[in-house]
């Protein structure tokens, strides 16, 4: 049981984090052209001379692994090996990057211009950069940024170029190749393209994994990919995808490299470029296809202010240390290493757990602006709130968030009223302030059909929610405990724990909850709530205190939309439109919530999938 | 062969000489047989004549007379730094003895961050109180006396047989400490003596630990502290006769206590050799080789010990194990020899062994090849193994070991030699563009007829050239082999200056050699750092044997322990993680050092539960009372 474990929670509020530097500052005062053309000599892994992309391709095509797979397939299909090899070569051609310094310099120049127009600041923790520089020289490095925007990988490469670090090779979705010229330019700045799905295609998988592994083994360049697999439309972290992580870990498991450094990177936007698009997408408007003309049309965003970006390079995590005592590497001793093999259960569990761990590290180091607090409060008061009260509540929430370990970018000298005011100013599209009251901008500019009105209202709620979502990970565990206490309707610890465990299970598609970490999460939640004196944890009981009511009711109402969303269930959209007035929770309309709820129900075997 | 069909005058002369030599040998062998028979026929206590015969051994019964009690090898041979800071090896026994080695100091200080000003000298003598008096059953001792078996309860004799040459053992001795020591040392003189001793031990429930040359590096000789019975060390060193030589079948029958150098010397006098040359052959014994599955440097020509053994006799509590014939190969169920080979003293005492012998080769030649880097060196060795044309010995030293070897160059007397050396260096680094921080050297030893050797040499150098290798002369090759004989003496020198070190080995499939070498070295460096070692450690490796399916890799690992409270503990932790890393990278638990007690913890993993059970059941049948209670292996 929970109380018997020896888990001693570290106080999250005491976590020391690095300071930030604004890399745009220098760009505003010196020539972009000179910056783009400057001498660029990055440090490399163990002093290895980076090989040309062409050499890399040959190495992949001639690898034992690929030859083995080609021979196997040839035996199976009866096709000649040459034909299959030709096919493999084609796949590689389509996939491989062609990093060219010239293109990189072009991007360095144009991105400097664009960033200066878009953002006030691009702030980076330089200590993290230094740690990264050290890691790059010692072991192959895998960069794992969070994914909120198309800007993510541009920003990453831009920063690495700025700090004279080797440019990463980036796993990108094939959709980018649809963009004329731009796709190829991305390729020349280090992107390699993978198909979104290639389920049973053995050859594709072999080429792809060998390509990535070859780069990793040779220490060719840091490898960058998004654990979340795709951009999070809701601004909360997505449950990690394991394919690429499996691939980059394998060379270590097989002893081909001594260690691999996994670097979680948190990129937080004060205002996401795709803000409005995401809300529409969540409401069922299909994602616009990536195209060059679309990109050009989108240039009007250049005229808006998107605030600051914070990029936090976390501590490199040594895969070797993680795997110590978990993975028995001698399991690979009895089979030639080039013969592909399904990872053992033990390995899969380890990879999965590591992935969650890394995403949590991303979450922890995600910089939060005061605005996310304001957004959270506004969503709880759909009818608006007095400015004074909003300021007071924000200030209170700030204290709570900090004590739970939130990485809040809110220096002490900025007063609450100022912070609230500047937050509202940056997000005028979402909030209306009139007569000393602040309210979500829900009323459509020009009244249309009821469907359109509903759509607009839902869109603005979802946009606002995407900011609140950024802080959910801070409150998630204590809130689950709070909800469990409500659900259990008793104070016995065992009952509460089982409710907690149930809720955690239900929401494990929605939030980052490490599989098998229930006990730890429960203890953590108890610890956090005890620390702020909201509950009293005894041996057998968990009791809410007088003072804790405010905290607990805030926490439960913070997660209310999800609870509601899951209660409504994945009901058809149109049905709800008939009762717009009865629907109090617009967030239940989010396709993301519906998708996750359905997945949870399927996982918990409440519903069954029938082929239609 | 060519010589048979085109016999010239010269060759005829050679043949005549050969015939004469053979006749000589026969006469000598015959007299040897007679002596041996006389020995065996005689009952009763050993006589004056007997000791005379046995004293031909390089190591006497009282080992302490010529060997160090707290270090490696002969008392008269040790390294030291003279007043000018040049290293010297005392004595006259080795090629290096007496010459000055100017480069060692700089290498030593540079590699370890050591300083000649910081000394950590060894205690001169064993503390009187360190060894408790023997506790023995009188009946057992009386039994020994009745059988007229020579034995000793002297402190020195007992302490000498309480250890092998693991780092922690020598380190403790240097500080005047010994662990548990045997209560008595007994010297059987022949097979029958051993039978008597074991019978007595079974009667009186005494624990026996066989002792051969004492060169174990697996903690195999340590007397288990938890053993409640009296422990008796059975020192086989006096069973050292060559009982017969059979020139028709090219075999020799030897008592198992004979040490390597004596065996080769005596056989050499008759024009033969076994060709089994482990690095420890100066001191290690034939029985020890069999009991640990030893490997010799020249195994490519002569084979490892298991290939050389034709017949073994081992006395166990259950009786004598031996085969009934000397057939070269048999199909009579699982080979019982393989319970004896590698039994590490847990089943009984090996008393007599029949080995294959070969005529001493007419010609031997050293050689060496420089490679631009270790990767290409390994690739070359792999190709040599693939073509099955490995010379008697081929070893590839990594860059650090190459520098180590260079630091051991004795001072050259002639300007011409030093000029030549400079020229060679210039050619390799400047003209050929080898990076001195990457290049590595393979050392070679060819044996056989002169023509064959020369042809073989060309074949190997041609392969090497394909991998960018350049022939680098005989001298470098010879120095490489010398290093292995003096390395243990050098460890004692290091320990005078706060540097401790050890070697460990493994065998691994070819495709994993590079990965294993790199990962193990990095693991050692990382572990040292994490354990608070102040100075970066030396971890270097060489590929010492090639096989069809893999290679043997040998590591040296040493570090400067100044500032550490418990250096031996740190050392052991690092060695453990290094071994775990070896296993994780597909390496074996041991190629030739054996398991002993040092690597016992991994046996289950290494041979599976059922495998371990098989070995256990053999032990249980052969030695139900655990008379051979050294607790090795299982």
Give a quick precis of the structure.
The complex is a heterodimer of chains A (612) and B (634). Chain A is α/β, with parallel strands linked by helices and 612 residues long. Chain A has helices spanning 24-29, 32-37, 53-61, 64-77, 81-95, 101-118, 126-138, 151-162, 182-188, 202-217, 243-253, 275-282, 292-297, 319-323, 345-364, 370-380, 387-403, 416-426, 450-488, 493-506, 518-531, 548-568, 573-577, 591-603, and strands spanning 20-22, 121-125, 141-145, 169-173, 191-194, 223-224, 261-269, 308-313, 317-318, 385-386, 431-434, 437-440, 535-537, 542-544.
Helix content of chain A: 40-55%
Low-confidence stretches of chain B: 1-7, 29-55
CA-atom Rg of chain B in angstroms: 25 Å
How much of the polypeptide of chain A forms β-strand, as a percent range? 5-15%
Overall average residue pLDDT of chain B: 89
**Tertiary shape of chain B:** globular
Distance from first to last alpha carbon of chain A: 44 Å
Largest sheet of chain A: 9 strands, mixed
Shape of chain A: globular
Q: Uncertain runs of chain A with pLDDT below 50, 5 residues or more?
A: 1-9, 572-582
Alpha carbon gap, first and last residue of chain B = 50 Å
Beta strand count of chain A: 14
Question: What's the helical proportion of residues of chain B?
Answer: 25-40%
Query: What class would the helix/strand composition of chain A place it in?
Result: alpha/beta
Walk me through the structure.
The complex is a heterodimer of chains A (612) and B (634). Chain A has 612 residues and is of the alpha/beta class. Chain A has helices at 24-29, 32-37, 53-61, 64-77, 81-95, 101-118, 126-138, 151-162, 182-188, 202-217, 243-253, 275-282, 292-297, 319-323, 345-364, 370-380, 387-403, 416-426, 450-488, 493-506, 518-531, 548-568, 573-577, 591-603; strands at residues 20-22, 121-125, 141-145, 169-173, 191-194, 223-224, 261-269, 308-313, 317-318, 385-386, 431-434, 437-440, 535-537, 542-544. In chain A, strands 1, 2, 3, 4, 5, 6, 7, 8 and 9 form a nine-stranded mixed sheet that branches. The longest helix of chain A has 39 residues, at 450-488. Chain A is globular, with a radius of gyration of 25 Å. Chain B has 634 residues and is α+β, with helices and mostly antiparallel strands. Chain B has a seven-stranded antiparallel sheet with strand order 18-15-17-16-20-21-19, sandwiched between helices. In chain B, a hairpin with a 3-residue loop joins β20 and β21. In chain B, α5 packs antiparallel against α8 (191-204), α14 crosses α17 (450-466) and α19 runs antiparallel to α20 (567-584). Chains A and B meet through loops of A and α19 of B.
């Amino acid at each position: 049981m929970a109380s018997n474990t020896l888990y001693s929670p570290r106080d999250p509020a005491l976590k020391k984090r690095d300071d930030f530097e604004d890399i745009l500052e220098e760009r505003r005062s010196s020539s972009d052209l000179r910056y783009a053309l400057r001498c660029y000599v990055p440090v490399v892994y163990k002093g290895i001379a980076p090989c040309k992309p062409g050499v890399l391709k040959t190495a992949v095509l001639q690898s034992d692994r690929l030859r083995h797979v080609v021979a196997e397939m040839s035996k199976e299909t009866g096709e000649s090996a040459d034909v299959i090899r030709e096919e493999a070569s084609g796949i590689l051609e389509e996939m491989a990057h062609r990093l060219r310094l010239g293109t990189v310099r072009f991007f360095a120049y144009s991105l400097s211009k664009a960033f200066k127009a878009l953002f006030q600041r691009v702030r980076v923790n330089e200590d993290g950069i230094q740690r990264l520089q050290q890691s790059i020289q010692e072991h192959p490095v895998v960069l794992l940024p969070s994914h909120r925007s198309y800007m993510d990988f541009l920003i990453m490469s831009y920063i690495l170029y700025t700090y004279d670090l080797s440019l990463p090779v980036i796993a990108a979705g094939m959709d980018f190749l649809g963009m004329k010229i731009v796709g190829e330019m991305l390729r020349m700045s280090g992107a390699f393209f993978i198909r979104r799905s290639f389920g049973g295609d053995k050859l594709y998988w072999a080429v792809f994994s060998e390509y990535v592994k070859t780069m990793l083994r040779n220490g060719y360049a840091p490898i960058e990919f998004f654990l979340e697999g795709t951009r999070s439309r809701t601004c909360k972290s997505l449950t990690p995808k394991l394919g690429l992580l499996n691939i980059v870990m394998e060379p270590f498991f097989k002893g081909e490299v001594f260690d691999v450094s996994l670097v979680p990177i948190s990129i937080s936007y004060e205002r996401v470029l795709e803000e409005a698009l995401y809300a529409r997408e969540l409401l069922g408007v299909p994602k616009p296809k990536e195209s060059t003309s679309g990109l050009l049309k989108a240039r009007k965003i250049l005229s808006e202010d998107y605030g600051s970006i914070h990029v936090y390079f976390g501590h490199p995590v040594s895969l070797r240390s993680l795997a110590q005592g978990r993975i028995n590497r001698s399991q690979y001793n009895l089979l030639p290493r080039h013969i592909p093999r399904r990872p053992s259960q033990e390995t899969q569990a380890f990879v999965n757990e590591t992935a969650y761990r890394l995403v949590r590290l991303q979450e922890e180091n995600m910089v939060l602006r005061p605005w996310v607090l304001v957004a959270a409060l506004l969503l709880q008061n759909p009818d608006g709130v007095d400015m004074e009260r909003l300021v007071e509540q924000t200030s209170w929430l700030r204290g709570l968030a900090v004590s739970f370990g939130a990485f809040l970018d809110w220096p002490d000298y900025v007063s609450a009223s100022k912070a609230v005011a500047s937050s509202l100013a940056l997000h005028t599209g979402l909030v209306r302030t009139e007569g000393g009251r602040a309210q979500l901008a829900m009323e459509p500019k020009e009244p249309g059909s009821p469907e359109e009105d509903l759509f607009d209202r839902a869109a603005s709620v979802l946009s606002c929610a995407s900011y609140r979502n950024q802080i959910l990970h801070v409150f998630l565990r204590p809130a689950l405990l709070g909800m469990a206490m409500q659900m259990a309707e008793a104070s016995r610890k065992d009952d509460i724990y089982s409710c907690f465990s149930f809720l955690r299970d239900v929401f494990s598609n929605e939030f980052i909850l490490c599989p098998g970490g229930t006990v730890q999460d429960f203890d953590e939640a108890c610890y956090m709530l005890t620390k702020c004196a909201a509950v009293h944890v005894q041996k057998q009981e968990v009791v809410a205190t007088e003072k804790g009511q405010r905290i607990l009711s805030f926490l439960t109402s913070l997660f209310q939309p999800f609870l509601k969303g899951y209660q409504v269930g994945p009901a058809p959209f149109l049905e709800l439109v008939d009762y717009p007035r009865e629907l109090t929770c617009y967030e239940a309309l989010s396709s993301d919530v519906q998708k996750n709820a359905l997945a949870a129900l399927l996982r918990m075997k409440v519903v069954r999938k029938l082929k239609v | 062969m060519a010589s048979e069909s085109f016999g010239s005058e010269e060759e005829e002369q050679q043949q005549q000489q050969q015939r004469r030599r053979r006749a000589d040998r026969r006469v000598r062998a015959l007299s040897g047989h007679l002596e041996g028979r006389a020995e065996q026929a005689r009952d009763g206590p050993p006589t004056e004549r007997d000791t005379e015969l046995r004293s031909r051994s390089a190591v006497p019964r009282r080992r302490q007379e010529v060997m160090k009690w707290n270090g490696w090898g002969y008392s008269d041979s040790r390294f030291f730094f003279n007043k000018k800071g040049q290293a010297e090896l005392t004595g006259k026994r080795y090629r290096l003895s007496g010459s000055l080695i100017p480069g060692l100091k700089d290498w030593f200080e540079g590699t370890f961050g050591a300083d000649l000003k910081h000394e950590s000298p060894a205690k001169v003598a064993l503390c009187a109180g360190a060894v408790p008096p023997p506790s023995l059953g009188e009946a057992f001792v009386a039994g020994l006396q009745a059988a007229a078996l020579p034995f000793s309860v002297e402190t020195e004799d007992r302490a000498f047989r309480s250890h092998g040459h693991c780092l922690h053992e020598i380190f403790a001795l240097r500080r005047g400490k010994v662990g548990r020591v045997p209560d008595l040392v007994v010297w059987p003189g022949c097979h029958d003596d051993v039978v008597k001793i074991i019978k007595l031990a079974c009667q009186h429930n005494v624990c026996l630990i066989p002792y051969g040359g004492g060169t174990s590096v697996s903690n195999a000789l340590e007397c288990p502290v938890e053993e409640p019975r009296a422990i008796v060390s059975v020192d086989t060193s006096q069973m050292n006769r060559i009982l017969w030589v059979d020139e028709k079948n090219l075999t020799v029958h030897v008592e198992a206590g004979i040490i390597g150098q004596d065996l080769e010397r005596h056989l050499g006098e008759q024009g033969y050799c076994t060709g089994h040359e482990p690095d420890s052959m100066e001191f290690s014994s034939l029985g020890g080789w069999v009991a640990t599955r030893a490997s010799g440097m020249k195994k490519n020509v002569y084979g490892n010990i298991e290939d050389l053994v034709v017949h073994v006799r081992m006395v166990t509590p259950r009786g004598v194990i031996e085969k009934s014939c000397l057939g070269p190969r048999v199909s009579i169920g699982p080979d019982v020899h393989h319970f004896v080979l590698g039994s590490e003293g847990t089943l009984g005492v090996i008393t007599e062994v029949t080995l294959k012998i070969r005529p001493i080769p007419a010609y031997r030649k050293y050689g060496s090849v420089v490679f631009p880097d270790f990767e290409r060196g390994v690739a070359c060795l792999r190709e040599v193994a693939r073509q099955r044309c490995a010379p008697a010995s081929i070893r590839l030293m990594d860059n650090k070991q190459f520098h180590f070897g260079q630091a051991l160059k004795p001072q050259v007397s002639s300007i011409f030699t030093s000029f030549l050396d400079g020229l060679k260096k210039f050619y390799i680094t400047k003209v050929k563009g080898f990076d001195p921080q990457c290049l590595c050297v393979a050392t070679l030893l060819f044996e056989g007829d002169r023509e064959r050797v020369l042809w073989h040499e060309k074949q190997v150098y041609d392969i090497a050239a394909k991998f960018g290798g350049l022939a680098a002369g005989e001298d470098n090759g010879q120095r490489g082999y010398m290093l292995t004989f003096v390395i243990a003496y050098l460890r004692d020198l290091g320990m005078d200056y706060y540097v401790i070190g050890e070697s460990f080995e493994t065998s691994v499939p070819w495709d994993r050699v590079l990965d294993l070498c790199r990962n193990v070295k990095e693991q050692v460096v990382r572990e040292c750092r994490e354990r608070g070692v102040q100075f970066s450690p030396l971890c270097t490796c060489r590929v010492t044997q090639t096989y069809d399916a893999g290679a043997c890799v040998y590591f040296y690992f040493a570090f400067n322990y100044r500032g550490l409270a418990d250096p031996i503990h740190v050392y052991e932790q690092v060695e453990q993680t290094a071994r775990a890393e070896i296993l994780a990278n597909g390496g074996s638990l041991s190629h030739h050092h054996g398991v002993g007690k040092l690597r016992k913890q991994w046996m289950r993993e290494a041979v599976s539960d059922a495998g371990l059970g098989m070995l256990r059941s053999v032990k249980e049948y052969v030695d139900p009372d655990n008379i051979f209670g050294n607790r090795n292996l299982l």
